[in-house]
Structures are given as structure tokens and as C-alpha cells.
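S1.2 Input.
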Amino acid sequence: MGGNGFFKDPNLIPIHEKVLAQKRLTFEDGLDLYRSTDLLGVGYLANIARERQHGNKAYYIINQHINYSNVCINGCKFCAFGKRAGDPLAYEMSLDDIMAKVDERLSEPVTEIHIVGGLHPNLPFSYYLDMLRNIKTRRPDVHLQAFTAVEIAHLASIADLSVADTLAALQEVGLGSLPGGGAEVFSPRIRQSLCAKKLPPEGWLQVCQTAHRQGLRTNATMLYGHHETLEERVDHLVKLRAAQDETGGFLTFIPLAFHSANTELAGLPETTGFDDLKNLAVARLILDNFPHIKAFWIMIGPKIAQLSLAFGADDIDGTVIEERITHMAGARTAQGLTRQELHHLIQEAGREPVERDTLYNVISH
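S1.3 Output.
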């Protein structure tokens, strides 16, 4: 099984040969993968690349999410989380509120706290510095993965600092890495239509590459399932790959399934399991220089995340606990999973559960 006769789509045969020879796939190859209805064939190819890098391992993390505020100046049409100041649903957490969230899980073996929020117009730079400093005082061994590239650019603006100096100031008080949000889709057409005020793609990549040059690892994402074309998806992946060739600091790619409830795009159908698995598989094949591909179970559900371990993904994220951004857009997944639940999902899929820290150092098998 796996020879040329295995593929229902003949366009996958030359791609199969490239994958076996470890040759880089082209933009056209990416389009052929996205256009193919042979999902099992595409998954088979992605699994070759996945097992070449990670064998039978499937990673997870004991982590905690803190979304410190949803007040945001951007007003992106695909976002249900961000609110204008004064909106009845707007909120901002005080530093004491944040520390209370940290304290709730002090007894748990959390190794990462994942911190993202909106672009708040009034919170001073000192708020963010104090936030990280206080958390590190309470949990000195925890890794702080905080602030998307979009947030970093915003903080640089309010602090009147360069991006490099902003990152350096945050590193001094405990910043460990950047999450991958805010990339959306790099297409200028999509950006103008859906998030015109957001940091442009060039700015997003510049912040990430600046972070890489300062020794910080970052993640990367792509929001799919709204108005983007297949060509725009491939273009996004190819641009990420080119940036990784230059600075090498991207750790994980996470495709993000669009949830339309409570957004200005409400009514768009949910992404299908077919498309969720396809995006993970194509990413694994195109992003040959990315160490990891993550299936974010919060967005696609535990069942598709479990299947994804045979479609290119080697990571299903972690325990999370109280994620707000996707749930405000109508996600029906749980707020968190236990270590036992993650183990069950991974083992039932025939993979070996490996607990990791943020930088993929192994904590336990």
C-alpha cells in the first residue's frame, strides 16, 4: 500500500515521488494538494513527512490560557472576541485578576502560560511588563508564551519603542516565546476586506523575524474557512516557509478553523472535517522547514484532532483551561482537557503520548 496504485488522484503521484526524495514542493504542488479530493492520499503523503520527523510521537503540554482583555481597536470582521471600549461585553483584567487566575492552578504541573488579548487603546506598557514580572515571581519555572506579533507591534507603538527594544524589555521580565495568532491570511485582498486596520502581513513577519533574531521562538497560524481562495492559502504557506528559511525561529504551525458565530461573517458554514484534515496535511507537506504541526483541538474538536495524528499533525496542544477567543465565536468544545483525556486520544490513535514544554523539551513519555 502506498505505491502509485494507491492514489485515486493521479496528480498526487509526482508529489509522492518528491516527498519520498525529500524534494521541496512548489506552489503548484500545494494547489494540487488542496484541489485533490483524495483525502486519504494527501494524508498518506503528510504522514510520511510527519513520521520522518517524529516517528510515532504525539506531543501535548500542560498549559493555561489567559486572555487578559478583549478591548480592541482593530474591529476585524471575523472576530467575535474583540470589543470596543464601553461595549457591554468588553472586559479587562486587573493585575490582581490575572494573578488570581494563575493562583487557581498553582497546584497543577503547568509548564506554559499562554497570554493573548486585544489591542487595548489605554493600558500602559507598564501593565504588560508588570503582568509578566508578577507571574514569573509566582511561578518562576513556567514558560510565558505571550502576545501575538500584532500585540507586540501595538505595544511598541504605545511604548514609543522599536519592536526590537519592546521585545527586549519583555524578555527581561520573563517573555519566553510568541504565540502565532494574528497572521490570518496574508492575502492583501482578504486583509483589506476583513481586517484593514490590522498589522499588515509584512509587519507580522517582521515582528516574528525580529523575535527570532533575538533568540525568541514563535509560532505561526493561518485562519481558513472564510473568504480565502486555495491560491491564497498556498501563498500564505509559501511566504511562511520563505521567512523560516531566513531566520529559522518558527517552532509550530497551527491552522485555525474559522468560527463565524457572533462575527460580522455570521452564517458562513463551519469548516468540515475534510477541510480541517486537508489543511493540516498540506501544511505538513509545504512547511518542510517547520519542526511541528499542531492540531488545535479547541477549534477543530478532539475527534478531528485525534484523526489529525495520521494526517501530518504531531501535536494536539494541551490542557488549555478557559479559552475565550474561539468560544466567543461559538465553539462548542470543552474549555479544557485533562492529561488523562489527552493520553486517551493519542493512544487510541496508535501514537505515543509525549508531554513537552513550550520548546518541545520532553517532560515525560
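S1.4 Remarks. The radius of gyration is 20 Å.
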